[in-house]
Design goal:
Helix content of chain A: over 70%
CATH topology of the largest domain in chain B: Rossmann fold
Strand order of the largest sheet of chain B: 2-1-3-7-9
CATH architecture of the largest domain in chain B: 3-Layer(aba) Sandwich
Largest sheet of chain B: 5 strands, parallel
Helix content of chain B: 40-55%
Strand content of chain A: under 5%
Strand content of chain B: 5-15%
Number of helices of chain A: 11
Number of domains of chain A: 1
Oligomer: heterodimer
Number of strands of chain B: 9
Order of helices and strands of chain A: HHHHHHHHHHH
Radius of gyration of chain A: 20 Å
Number of domains of chain B: 3
Largest sheet of chain A: none
Mean pLDDT of chain B: 80
């Protein structure tokens, strides 16, 4: 098998198509959500909705992650909280502060930025992979999680896991030749890009919607209809 | 000619026994010992059967003493003669001497003294005389588009000439990226329909020695192995000798520690570049390029592009001209949607969403009025 040709396809036309599907799909999803509209205030709000949303974001990003033990969600299931947190941290650092990924952003956006040294990124990638395995085992063993997991949930795990593992193997030159791993990495990334808009991985956008809506609800301090 | 053994010819030219053995060591060295197969009847000092260093030299000496010269026919098609230039300017003169004089180049367009139809006749005569024995070296890509009019020699198209010469060849060596994979002539939009030799010739062993140009020592080694052992090196999926194309340049690069430490040159004249940091961010293709530049280097082990401060272009890989920008990061996609196309995708997504949304509203209204009617 000619892996150079596979790589060219995966980095070339397939990536282009996958990215366009991703962009169009996410535009569709976002437009659909926006078109749902806001709930009407049937009672005049006593507080500021904007302030509520802002506080909600600040708490969620700047405070809770650093003192998670005060939260009930943490107390009830610390493993999922820690593993989930580390997974997201690792993912963001690798995707945004990893040199190779920054160069992808640079080619797409036209500008780049400073990145972290490889060993740091590498350890966080390993942490994210381990966290993902922990989350997988949790989903597999916890009866409630089993009950609420359909095939899309398992596919979510698979489609995120594959790019991460192939990327890690690629940087460490494990088992296969570099262009083979590069091809597998790009193929799995492309599949994930197509999968994101039709799956719950789209929460990377909708997280901000729900956070804003809940924050506004907290902020207006009045009876909700 | 070529009735005498190589050694007797060398002796006639005044080479001493000592000089000959040194020469044998050089040839053996060029073939890289570790890749040699165990040799029948060859034992080391302990009487153990193994392809040890001194045994290999002995083997080479034995072969050169008994074997006749190896005829080579060198054809150039859509090329720049750069591989020939590299070979003739190689820092291993003895090896080049081996190839160009001792191995007997019967036909070579750049080096031949004769011209025109005389040369072509000499080539045909050599092809007949050494049928089934000669090595065909090809430099440059071949083309068959529009009846092959883009590359003709003596009125024959490159494809015709290649098939004609390949028919009687013992093996074919495609030197340089053009002969191996199509190279520069094949860059988009490939106006001449250029092809690599191994895509055309399927019934003969084809060894690819890609590079722009091919590393002279690699070329010489392949020929030396064929001369001494009568075998060709083990090849990878792209027909490249595994002993020279087995590892990526990145894995043997002298700047690799800087890659691992995350220290990169960000432009060609910044502090990082002066300190010799990794060139990955400047578009180095080392991680996906298989060749031995980083170990053999060029000009007698003096330097190679990455050492002298230029990122690897990936010249020993297929389609390297179209494999993304030379100075674009290696991880960057080869093709990406333009701003307009991306905006069109967004517009399409929003338009479909609006359509679906309105359809839903209409459906709801219809259902609502139907309910009302029922109530009435």
């Amino acid at each position: 098998m000619n892996w150079t040709a596979v790589l060219e396809f995966a980095r070339g036309p397939f990536f282009k198509v996958a990215l366009l599907v991703f962009i169009a799909g996410m535009a569709y999803r976002i437009a659909r959500i926006i078109m749902l509209g806001w709930k009407k205030d049937r009672v005049p709000p006593r507080g500021s909705k904007v302030e509520g949303a802002a506080i909600s974001f600040l708490k969620g990003i700047l405070i809770w992650p650093f003192i998670p033990w005060v939260k009930d969600t943490f107390k009830r299931n610390p493993i999922i909280y820690i593993a989930g947190g580390l997974f997201h941290l690792g993912l963001f650092v690798v995707l945004i502060l990893g040199t190779a990924h920054m160069l992808v952003w640079k080619s797409l956006l036209g500008f780049g930025w400073a990145t972290l040294p490889l060993p740091i990124v590498d350890w966080l990638a390993a942490v994210a992979i381990v966290a993902m395995i922990v989350l997988f085992i949790h989903r597999l063993t916890n009866p409630v999680m089993r009950l609420i997991s359909g095939w899309p949930e398992w596919l979510n795990l698979l489609f995120v896991f594959l790019p991460m593992v192939t990327g890690y193997m690629m940087t460490h030159h494990l088992f296969f030749r570099y262009e083979v791993l590069f091809s597998l990495h790009m193929l799995s990334v492309n599949v994930m890009l197509i999968w994101i808009p039709i799956s719950r991985i789209s929460h990377f956008v909708f997280y901000f919607f729900s956070k804003a809506i809940h924050g506004a609800d907290f902020g207006k301090r009045s009876v909700s209809p | 000619m070529a009735e005498d053994s190589i050694y007797s010819e060398l002796k006639k030219e005044g080479m001493s026994r000592r000089g000959f053995l040194k020469f044998c060591g050089l040839v053996a060295g060029a073939m890289s010992f570790t890749m040699l197969p165990p040799i029948e009847g060859l034992t080391d000092v302990r009487g153990v059967q193994s392809p040890v260093k001194h045994g290999t030299i002995e083997m080479v000496a034995k072969a050169l003493q008994t074997k006749q010269r190896l005829p080579v026919i060198w054809m150039e098609f859509q090329d720049c003669a750069g591989c020939t230039e590299a070979l003739t300017r190689s820092k291993s003169p003895t090896l080049v001497d081996l190839v160009l004089n001792k191995i007997t180049v019967e036909y070579h367009e750049t080096l031949t003294a004769a011209a025109g139809f005389q040369t072509e006749e000499a080539k045909l005569a050599a092809m007949q005389k050494y049928a089934g024995q000669y090595i065909l070296v090809v430099e440059g890509s071949v083309t068959d588009l529009d009846d092959g009019i883009y590359c003709t020699i003596g009125g024959k198209s490159s494809m015709e000439l290649l098939r004609e010469a390949a028919a009687g060849a013992a093996a074919i060596v495609a030197t340089g990226n053009c002969a191996a994979f199509g190279g520069l002539p094949r860059a988009k939009p490939n106006p001449t329909g250029a092809l690599g030799v191994y895509e055309v010739i399927k019934d003969k062993p084809v060894v690819n020695i890609p590079g722009c140009p091919a590393i002279p020592e690699v070329f010489t080694s392949v020929l030396a192995q064929f001369l001494v052992f009568g075998t060709l090196p083990e090849l990878d999926a792209l027909h490249r000798p595994k002993n020279f194309y087995g590892t990526a340049i990145h894995d043997r690069c002298l700047r690799r520690p800087f890659y691992d430490a995350g220290k990169f040159a960000l432009s060609f004249d910044d502090e990082g570049a002066k300190k010799g940091y990794c060139l990955y961010k400047l578009g180095c293709k080392g991680p996906t390029t298989y060749n031995s530049c980083a170990t053999l280097k060029w000009s007698g082990g003096l330097s190679f592009p990455i050492q002298s401060g230029h990122p690897c272009l990936g010249c020993s890989e297929p389609n390297f001209w179209d494999g993304g920008g030379f100075y674009q990061g290696q991880s960057a996609p080869i093709s990406k949607p333009t701003g307009t196309v991306a905006a069109a995708a967004v517009a399409a997504g929003v338009a479909i969403a609006a359509g679906v949304g309105m359809a839903n509203v209409a459906q709801k209204k219809a259902a609502h009025s139907a309910d009302k009617e029922e109530e009435e």
